[in-house]
Amino acid sequence: MKFIKLFFLLFFSINILFASNKNIPAIVSLDWLKTNFDDPNLVIIDLRTSEDYKELHIKNAVNVPGLKSLFDDKFFMPKLDFLKDLFSNAGIDSNSKVVAYDNGDFIWAARFYWILETFGHKEVGIFKYGFTKDTKLDIPTSNKIVKPSRKEFVPRIDNSKIETKLGTLMSIGNKTIIDGRKESHYQGKESTAKRFGHIPSAQNYACTQNYQVTQNGNVMKDISQLKEVYKNIPKDKEIILYCDGGAEAALNFIVLEELGYKVSVYDGSWTEWGNDSEVPIQNPSKE
User: Measured between alpha carbons, how far apart are the two ends of the chain, in Å?
Assistant: First the structure.
């Protein structure tokens, strides 16, 4: 009996150690990036289009166009083999510290972050700043195309970070559901699917609340500001996040996970739910 107790104590201690032993912040500051810029294990991922990347990018960044790389033809997460090759070809392995950035929408970098975490890689963060050719940041830039050496990415799937349509349906009234789309979509005035409205019981927290617009581009808010945004969400329930296609929800995922919530992303999101007449919806615009 003592051996069994000792085993479980050791098991949970190791898990806690590894869970907390993250060397990269979820939201990466300019100072952190500059300090770690020459780290041989640092991998910078540019999620913008190849055209924008070729014009100008953060030096050493590898281009992984978000829309083309992070969805399959039905707007779900791509298959395991595809993503394993994608990460391996980007130069990512178990030792990599990955910083993802995009043009300031943050949703492409966020989806990359969420998929990488779902595949078991914890050492990932998104850059606090959006980047375009007009962005003025004290950091080296280049227009040289980077072709990294292939590494071997080994996935370890964490199913707790991804939710299905059935799981979401069963969670209505039991878990907190958050809609990350803009209010007009939540209210049923606009829709990217056949049906209009939102998943019953869902609360609307548009992902755009997570950043602010400045003259030098979009910037993620500080964690103290974000804590205030989500202060009314209880922490005693698990949270399911969705949006139109699983990218906006990923930005909410990063913030809420950083604030200590247990969160998952419904990958099919409104693209799947809003086109399925068998699942319930609420449409405030018709009430």
Answer: 61
Amino acid at 80: L
In contact, 237 and 176? CB cutoff 8 Å:
yes
- CB 223, CB 216: distance < 8 Å: no
pLDDT profile of the chain (287 residues), mean per 10 = 37 38 91 97 98 97 96 94 97 98 98 98 97 94 97 96 98 97 98 98 98 94 96 96 97 97 98 98 94
* Nearest-angstrom CA–CA distance, 46 and 172: 36
Tokens of 15: 């898990």
In the chain, the amino acid numbered 277 is S
Structure tokens at 98: 């990955």
